[in-house]
Amino acid sequence: MEHEVSEMLRINKAQRDYYDHADGAGESEVNGFATNLWRRWRGRALSVFEDAAMDRSLSEVHLRWLPRDLSRSKVLDLGVGYGNPLSITLAKAAGSYVAIDLSPRLVDHFQRQLDRAGAPNARALVADFLSEEFAERDFDLVYARAVFHHFKYFDAFLENLHGRLAPGGVVVTLDDPIETWAPMKVLRAAYRPFQTDASWEYPFTRATLRRIERFFTIERAQGTYDSSKWAIPLGIVAPKFARRCATRWHEKDLARTYSVSTVTSSLRVSFLLRRKELAARDPRESV
Prior knowledge:
This protein is 42% helix and 18% strand. It has a 7-stranded mixed beta sheet with strand order 3-2-1-4-5-7-6.
């Protein structure tokens, strides 16, 4: 695991430099032609969901998952970026709130939001979650917006995350991409050789999903862009009708009960994970 973590720390330095000049969604001069083209296409394809209030509806799902009282909880907002829809809510409610990101530019921007919000128990730090220099642990809640898919060696990341949680601690993930739907898998395979940020982009596979269950109990799974993904091709021929369908089908997705096996028909997923108590390793296993 040590070699894997070292390599991911090196990758994260390149990722930090990237996010100091660009983001993970928009076009940028630091991107290659193919990446800007992909993001332009993705933005147009997902424009049919503008009336579906995706961020707001997922935030409502996550609020139902979170403990009602966080006043005695230590919370980590992992990969906070500019701040997500629940960042300020968590910062105000938590007994202790720490937000981290690789990018000094993004952390500075979010710290100004915290200052305006008046959250005395909150702070934002430039930190790499995998680094020993980030010594914080015993978190009761980790909130991670589209973060899990950024780690090349997923088991090493999950082990680190597991070790930083307090016993019984929970993780809420937001909107990580899945590439288990065959057409998306083909598209991503064709795009990946030309992708500017390929070194830190690893959408979930079925094997990835199984690895999560080694360290965590999956208490809730919420698929998005499942039934509603069909609004994307519909938007090419009938944009207004596609918008109406996108909203209706998104509501259908939110009402569906998902498991780790059925969520693979979605394009994105959120999880409520609870830390498992792992059996102690036999020292002879490492010999």
